[in-house]
Specification:
alpha/beta, 7 strands, Glycerol-3-phosphate (1)-acyltransferase
Length: 250
Amino acid sequence: MSVLRSHVFNGLWGLWTGLFGLLIPLLWIAGPPPRTVRALSRIWARGILGLLSGLVGLRYEVRGRENRPPTPSLIIANHESTWETLAALVLFPDVAIVAKQELLRIPIMGWYLRSSPMIMIDRDDGHKALRAMMEQGQAALAAGRSVLVFPEGARKRTGEPVEFKRGVALLYKTFAVPVLPVVVTSGRFWGIDGAPKAPGTIVVSFLPPIAPGLTAANFVSTAEALMESEKSKLAREEIAETAAISAYQT
């Protein structure tokens, strides 16, 4: 049943995305206005999350909303699934997401990413990618938009330790804004191995923000420790919940 539901979801996801492709000519004629493109992107993402909830039974729970800085910030999140790139559009309105340039080649989605605009980088060109992140990130912050980056650089399996790439520390020093660490448990239900999407509840945990002013090394060690601790805590909660359900059923 999980396999069937997952396939039906994928099909409806494609149809839903196709509807937004029909709007591209009108948006192109109009400019396209970035705020309008971002608003439509949020509607698109909400629809996908709704399909996940209704068809697959995959929902999400947000913890620590009070930790969100009131001003534009640098958001750093672990990366276990495609899910968090979709949910970010809903969780952080008008966010500028740092994403790989290859996504621009995806029909419809690539156009919306370019027109939002998001911060698209070529990961094979380290210096150029870092310069693009700094310049476009500063422009986004100046426009009142937060910047989201996945500091591990690529999706990782659940349980792998949090290890940042070097460029994140430079962004922290350059931007000089509060940093919001975010931990998600999406990989337990929608992983990178191609398995069917599973029902459950993804936890999105906003951790206490890290103020600007630390050394690069202290920032990295502090952020990695905070995120790793939260991941371990959520894993223990899942084990305890699974054991409780098993005991109840027996």
